[in-house]
Amino acid sequence: MSNRIVVLSEEIANKIAAGEVVERPASIVKELVENSIDAGARDIRVELEKGGCESIAIIDNGSGIEYEDVALVFERHATSKIHHFEDIYRVASFGFRGEAMPSIASIARMELLTRRSEDLAGTRAVVEGGVIKEILPAGCSAGTQIRVTKIFENVPARRKFLKTETTEQGLCLDAITRLALAHPEIRFKVFANGREIFTAPEAKDMAERIAMVMGADFSDHCLAVAGENENVKLSGFISRPEFTRSNSRNIFLFVNSRFVRDNSVSHAVLSAYRQIIEARRFPAAALFLDLPGDDVDVNVHPAKMEVRFKDSRNIYDLVSRTIARSLAAGDAPKGSFVYRLAPREKTQPSGFPRSAENFPPRLAGLYSRQNLQQAISSDLLSRSGVAEAAPLAGSDYTPKEKIAFTDFSYLGQFANTYLIFVGDKGFILIDQHAAHERIVFEKLKKSSGEKIIGQPLLLPEVVSLSPGQIALFSGCVDFLQEIGLEIEIFGRDAIVVKALPAILPQTQSREIIADIADQLADQNSLPDLQERKEKILAALACRAAIKANSVMTPEEVMALCRDLEATPFNVTCPHGRPIIVNFSLGEIERMFKRK
Ligand code: ADP
Ligand code: MG
Predict the structure, then answer these.
(1) What is the 8-class DSSP label of residue 282?
(2) Chain segment 444-464, per-residue pLDDT in tens
(3) Domain total in the chain
(4) What's the pTM value of the predicted model, to 2 decimals?
(5) Among the four 38, 133, 148, 171, which has the fewest Cβ within 10 Å?
């Protein structure tokens, strides 16, 4: 090869650019559907053969393209969407780089049929390997139809990187799903090998479209979010804590209707769910950020999947605060358990199930059901004032689907760990440790920042630590003091514990210090101060909570239930494990094959 410098031919330049824009069939689908949306289409149909590896067709009823412009469509940097550089900060359209059509045409065969509704005749164009083969008038319906075949035939290296047809088809569908989420007014239909695999009829609003696209399960378990901060508006839907996923793929973020990935915003979402869902589980969300075009740069990445915010700190705060607020408001206000069970009925529970007469005599004999039912119900009723569960703010739950704790009567403890409650429509088990852990955690969290006075120890306790641990402790003396845990560093390898929060077992200062030391050592890498604090609070809550395997008196159970009702996030413990497990009558009947 000679080392003279030459300007690359248009064809080669397009092929190189295609590497950035057209990675796989899903990228073709994304670019073409975006063009249809930009063209004002209200109806978009996608046909995939062999996962989009063999052929991709997009049929829209958008504006169409004028005969004279068709040749330009395949030229690089030819676009109808911007005319000056500054325009890109104002663009409402997806495209503006004028790269997608020539890029796709350079690595495949494209057949285009298009007509503007005001023209009598349309145009047919064929481009193969970047070379225009034909542009002729042709009859066709208004709108644009594009069929892409021979995909990557002239770039075998790229073809080799494709995954199975099923995977590629899934990725194509992901791309369509994201576009469909942000455009409820557009009808989408997707066919794979002739079979319809996805359909989204015109929806009246975002909520309706989200239900169609993200599934009934999500829309049954979601909360609305809405917040505003300076020029930025946040809206959308997030999953309730009991609905989690094994990865973060179901967190959809849209910035000015454009799907983007943004690590900082994802982190903000996850931070709001911290100590609410289990560590390795993820929420689902569809979030829409709307902000002035000048405050966000969409021209960072050729596929425009990433954006740059002018004030990303502001965005982070808005997202994490709005979601945290919505989660707190959505869970268990007004003392009702956010838990799905059959609708609550106004009638008094009918007689005790016959089979329960054989219940362990200790339970049946000792605590007469009527007494307990009365004791618990009247007590809980009078304290929390719930006769009927009230609708949750911003939630899709109807009051019928929620139950108040008063619907249940306490039966007893199982394995000295689980509290059994029965109601008319089923029974529930409560994990006493998990429940109490959440109560204590929320109490500690509420008091941190307010500075509560700890309970002084009769004898201050000296605890020896390694110099490394001492160094970690010295960084959090003030925070611990705020929650009533008073310590003093004593030389290079010991601390003195002077006071403990009243809810912690006063005799266990050594263990408590060890727990905190573990958390601090673990968290060296955690940059977020708030996150560190919450981890410490969760460890303290675990220490303070009633243990599994300990006997509880009915009075203690009642007190626990009362506290639990008044506690936010009362469906999971601070580590994200469930507090309540529900067995509905229907489920039980199915287990016994009655249904
Ligand atoms: P961009 O979208 O960045 O402008 P593209 O290469 O994707 O660049 O498209 C080039 C041009 O082709 C667009 O600006 C638009 O004018 C035209 N075009 C492409 N697809 C369609 C379509 N489905 N309907 C109408 N016009 C289209
Ligand atoms: Mg485009």
Answers:
(1) B
(2) 888 766 666 788 888 889 988
(3) 3
(4) 0.65
(5) 133
